[in-house]
Amino acid sequence: MLYLELFIQGFVQGSIYALIALGLTLVYGLLRILHVAHAALFTLGGYIGVIVTNATGSFTLAMVVAMLVVGFAGMLMYKLAYEPLLSKPPYVSLIASIALFIAAEEIFRIAFGPYGLSYQTPPLQGQIELFSDFYLKYAEILVMGLSVVLLSALAWLSMRTRTGVAWRATVTDPDMARAFGVKIQNVRYLNFFIGSSFAAAAGVLVALLNNLVEPTMGSVPSYKALAIIVLGGLGSIRGTLIAALLLGILESFGTIYIGHLLGRDAIAFAFLILVLMVRPQGLMGGKL
Amino acid sequence: MSYEITLLTTMAISVLFALSLNFITGFCGQISLGHAAFLGAGAYTSAMLSKAGVPFLMTIPAAALCAAVLGAITGLASLRVRHDFLAITTMGVGFLFVGIIRQQDFFGGEIGIAGIPGSGFGKVRFMLICVALAFTFAAFSLYVRRSWMGFVFKSIADNEDVTRVLGIDVSRYKLIAFIIGTGTAGVAGALYAHHFRFIGPDSFGFVESISVLAMVIVGGIGSVWGVIFAAALLSVLPMLVQFIDDYKLLFYSALLFSMMRFSPDGIAGLCTRLSSSISRRTTESDGNKR
After folding, report:
1. Model ipTM?
2. Do B31 and A91 touch (CB under 8 A)?
3. Which runs of E-coded beta strand occur in chain A?
């Protein structure tokens, strides 16, 4: 039974990783930017979730508000920070993004205090007994359910709607898409809106699982999400989802079996380096 | 006087460390987001040897060797990946280093290593050693940049494929850059350990890697003088101005971001552009006179 428990725990963690890493992949696929500051939006989502829940008592409202506000914050971040840097060499936007992320962490610390916030009455703490002696919190079920819903919605949007077609066309060949009348600018805004709101959802969920948001809650996910998108083959959505789930499961097993050698957070990078040595283009990436 | 000596020592160690990254990222164009791991490798080697009774000066070559071996392994691994993949791989190396150190009681675990014996030279002479090492490596950097190897580095940084077509063994030169750069970081680590007399896993984490990258970038990637200036300035600024110390990270990140936004080639690039625009203006006004 231990295996199944570890597997499910890993799946919950992997769903969170998937929600965070998806935004990164979208941005990388479109703009070739390693968007480290994405994790700042994740943290912002967590803060908004806790503050709105405590103020209004409605967790659903908090989730919606967090996704909307952070979505717009992501668009703003693109407009102010990334757009002027698009023509510069790639390391410029990477460093700028890291700087942005560190600055955001400091601003959270100054604005909300270093010790973090909690839900006054954390919702969805009930448990169901899945089988003998193995309980699953409602919150954990929500994590898996919401991830599936959001990712399916995205799949529907990109495969079944005109917007989705324009979006995929822009990722494949921006110039050609523009020639066919796609407004590249709008596609980029949409991209940042969706990616950021997914990160916000992940932030609210992590805040729920830990019942804590703190200024530094984004630092580990930010680098881990980078490892995930590189593992998935930079820009491949399918690869990212597989890598996220795989890493979640690997970590939950790794913590038990090799935890004494390597901390939980280092496992991701050990795995990353091993994979890159064998497949430099990542798990699902095409030829470099 | 003792305060100024501490300040100068810190400065010299930072300059040496920043120049070692400049060798890899600036000269050879291989971006590294985990350089603090090699500072750490040197620091841990030197600290543990020192505690075992080895004299300070003997620990320096050992620290350099240990960091360089680690650097060679990283370099070999990095040969397989490029650009964004390389950035993330080196970042991974940094996290892996801290992750391993943290879990091993042999390395002091979370607590780190305290009570590292002094260098046995007194503060002033220790400072002189640090400054001398920083100067030596700066001179070496300047020499390499004008040598055949420096041209190869520059060519790899500009366009790796073309360099390979020219019949140059790109992998070999990348490895050389990695080994020299990381070995030097190891030396800086040995000095660091004996300057602060305490090291822990957090001293060599991602923030440290980013701070040193900030020094290189603010100075101007590849420019020896620019990097020296920026490293000296950024390392002591937080000590000089208390306000900056409280908001150190915010200040660093704002500086880094505005540098990327307005002058991605750093202070050196800024100076070049200023001086060229001044000289253009003077030649223009000369022309008008005639």
Report:
1. 0.79
2. yes
3. 127-131, 134-137
